[in-house]
Amino acid sequence: MKLQNRLGKYLLSWPPLVYLVLFFLIPTCIMFVAAFRFPGDYGGLAPMYYIEEGRVVWDLTLENFQRIVEEPIYLELFLKSAGYAGLTTLVCILMAYPLAWLIARSQKKHRDLMLLLVILPFWSNFLIRIYAWMIILGPQSAFTKAVNWVWTGMGFEPLQLLFTPFAVIVGMVYVHLPFMVLPLYANLEKHDMSLLAAAQDLGANAWQRFWKITWPLSLPGIFAGSALVFIPALGMFAIPDILGGTDSIMIGNLIKQQILDTRDWPFGAVLSIMLTAGVLGIAALGSLVARGGVKRG
Amino acid sequence: MAKKQSVWLWVSAISTYLFLYLPLVIVVVFSFNDSKLNAEWVGFTFKWYDQLFHNDKMLTAAGHSLMIAVAASLLSTFFGTLAGVAMHKYKLRILPFLVLTPIAIPELLTGVSLVIFFVMVNQVLGILELGLFTILLSHVAFCIGFVAIVVKARMQGMDDSLVEAARDLGATPFQAFRLVTLPVIRPGIIAGALMAFTLSIDDFVITFFTAGAGASTLPLEIYSMIKIAVTPEVNAVSSLLMLLTLVLIVIASRVSPNSLRADN
């Protein structure tokens, strides 16, 4: 019986375990080691060691990390990416909150449909959703013309919308918005409405009821949604690549360029490690805050 | 007071829905527009669809995408189902970490580590040259997690005493799994498989890294069209892809009504 149980455990867990060790864990480890190696003569990686007089000599370096410290442009790009991701998260919170609140307060039979309508665009192709904004923000579009009609009417020079940081933020908000609505809804739906009624009876106005009760109670949902938006936004390369101009590239574009175009893999690996560290930091912060929130609640 | 508040809520909620859907509607509408520019309505035409179906590069790419998506869906459903069941039945440490991390980190990082890995393996062992097969292996790696989550959620809704009853009646563990557990979690497995299919056929970032020079998939082809020359052919292929996704979602909701719910 016990043996059978253990056999079942191995039969079930080993196949996926082996697959993921092979095609996720080992590649990740190789990437980490690559950060300490020299670039190859024709791109890629130089040999990790060579043999001299029968002895193995390791050929590893910290130079790739030095480059990041010595040239401020890389750190600046990292901060700029964090800024873009942060702004995206903020706009997502502002847009998702009223919607999530409304869904949570709707009749039960309507909620599933309203949620499905939020998720549905997420299932259409990622590139198509970005492409849609190329059309809308393009110089010929009705939207751009309308904006510029107002803008020039106010006496300013006509604006370019596509290939700007603005377009990048719009695209990132568009793609990530469902990830903010869902956790926020899951949180708001659980709120005890009698708290708000009690506050009203005690004379709190609408703003006070929101700011003193709903907002603090919804913070766990905000944090969960922020992590789900901020983390992929920080590592984004396709949206700035398609909607952004030369001035709106992010860390992801630099990584893509190092790995696929310049083929300086060690430096690309260093940048990837920095990105991983940023992501893990945010995730750790998120779970810390969430745990604190649970304790207080 | 409360009335005024809810009007504002409705206005902002409806504008958010418009924000979500207008772009997609515009793409579809312009796919029928008789003008090379996606700017104003000129007249109705099917010519972009016609051009699309005569575009050999696009058709080849679509064939590749379909093949990879079917294979990735089958393989990741196999691994993901095992992982989901194992994660529900046993207290495991490494497997949940390996299953969930690829979902949580930016896709870019998975792409970078896999391309370095494949090229190194190719240099050392002479196998796994970048191409359709490496795309498939990469897709399976990130789809396993999604299948595992759906299956695990389904397992949590299952009554464990069913399996115990089968065992008491003399079924071997394997029989109990095949005759009791599997039929109960089948909707979850099908939903997971459809999810993996959609994720694979739509994937751009990881495919972009692991495709190498020769191989093309639909998203890669769409990307190069967007980057080089935008024509309403892109709108046509986009509309067809949306239709395909919609059909899959309808199937998934028929098979497993709860699998699409937000709490899963």
Task: Outline the structure in words.
Chain A: Belongs to the binding-protein-dependent transport system permease family. CysTW subfamily. Chain A: It is found in: Cell membrane. The complex is a heterodimer of chains A (297) and B (264). Chain A is mainly α. Chain A has a single domain, classed as Orthogonal Bundle (MetI-like fold). Chain A has a two-stranded antiparallel ribbon with strand order 1-2. In chain A, helix 3 crosses helix 7, helix 3 packs across helix 9 and helix 5 packs across helix 7. Chain A is globular. The model of chain A has no long low-confidence stretch (mean pLDDT 89). Chain B contains eleven helices and no strands. Chain B is globular. The C terminus of chain B is likely disordered. Chain B has 264 residues and is mainly α. Chain B has one domain: MetI-like (MetI-like fold, Orthogonal Bundle), CATH 1.10.3720.10. At the A-B interface, helix 1, helix 3, helix 4, helix 5 and helix 7 of A face helix 1, helix 3, helix 4, helix 5 and helix 6 of B.
Task: Provide a brief overview of the structure.
Chain A: Keywords: Cell membrane, Membrane, Transmembrane, Transmembrane helix, Transport. The complex is a heterodimer of chains A (297) and B (264). By secondary structure, chain A is mostly helical.
List keywords for this structure.
heterodimer, A: 297 residues, MetI-like fold, two-stranded antiparallel sheet, 12 helices, 74% helix, B: 264 residues, mainly alpha, 11 helices, transmembrane helix (chain A), MetI-like (chain A), MetI-like_sf (chain A), membrane (chain A)
